[in-house]
Amino acid sequence: MKLKHLSTAMILATLPATGVFAAALDRSGQSMSAFLQPGNYFEAGISILDPDVAGKEAGSSTTNRNIGDMADDYFFPSAALKLQLNDKFSFGLLYDQPFGSDAEYSGNNAFVSNPGSDSVLSAGAIDGIVTKKAKEALEAQGLPVNDQTLAIAKGQVLASPQFQKLAGALAVANNYLGTGGTKVEVDTQNLSFVFGFQPNQNFNFYAGPVLQTVKGNVSLRGQAYSLYNGYDANIKETTGVGWLAGAAYQIPEIALKASLTYRSEIDHKTNINEDLSLLNFPGLTSVLAGLDVPASKLQAINSEGKTTITTPQSVNLDFQTGIMANTVAFANVRWVNWKDFSIQPYKFGKVSEAVGGLVGRPNGFNLVEYSDDQWSVNAGVGRKLSDKWAGNVSVGWDSGAGNPVTTLGPTEGYWNVGLGLQYSPTPQTFLAGGVKYFWLGDAKAQTGAQAGSDQYVADFSDNNAIAYGLKLGYKF
Description:
mainly beta; Porin; five-stranded mixed beta sheet; 25 strands
């Protein structure tokens, strides 16, 4: 097939934007392609994403207002250095930004605070409290609970001095809610130290430690978040350590290469700086007591403690092979264990445990969680067009991480198509660029208190994104 001298960089570097918009927080795709290049090799790249994610209030929302584009543009760099120390051993440094999020709500909707109309508890939540107290009163009197008796009992609860006092306190508490729009920004960085052993020209076994940093900011605003309207969390940059391991097999004469790589989960223990504006309300304790929140849980609200954030484990399977002269087919399959991922900042969790009974979650709830693992597939064909030019086309699919999904990233997977082009001014250097268009999956968005149920507060559909990538490579 005359593929012996066909650069594998043509396939693995032509389109850098491979994993630029995947499920949940997944960004880079964590490729190992640079380490599997022959000889000594260096590359540096940048990927840029321009998403458009808009929707409407729906589900438990009492209004049906439009929600404008809430997904911000972002970019992230990558770099790699691979050294072939001798015939048997190699070493690599791989830098990427594997996980992240960048979004902000604006306009007039349930995710933007509106001091004139927002309330600490929704009308539905208040009705649930009244209904609960009415049932308790009927049962205490030994009376049957049916539509007629319940309606009378609810009226008595609403007219009672105790409830009137509680309603007045809730009205005052509304003045302590947040201002502005919901937003989130999460950034991670990975530095992988990879040691490889090649017993022969066909096999490559590799492993090594991974240093990872995480930092971020989250602000919850608007009626959708109820009493969390005014919650802020600042995650100071923290470092955790994990590992990777894998194996590759190749037959250079036919441009065949296959690799399987496992990356471990990584724990980060940090003191998150949290603030909830409602905690500044002087009468909060009496209000929560009036809502039957246990005194022991009230005391825990202002306690301090560490939060553990665990980024997920993943597996990448990469394959390419020659199919005709100067032409190869390639594919990547990626699995990420998002189903076991969640974030519950310490104080957020204590508040959720205190008030969770009001929304049917007596054990509390998470800020973010996902219901499914992510699967993604990218496949295509690359061709050497001349001594200096090569190109490829690709298609991709991503399963998403469940639906409904968090309001901080309301899409369910995608389909995409991509084009890439590579120019090699010398046999040792290349410049590659690519573009991908994404059809983002429709999703129902839910708050942390709704996670694990079919409830949701907004519906996002007919959204898209465009990704651009640029990469420089040098073989020496």
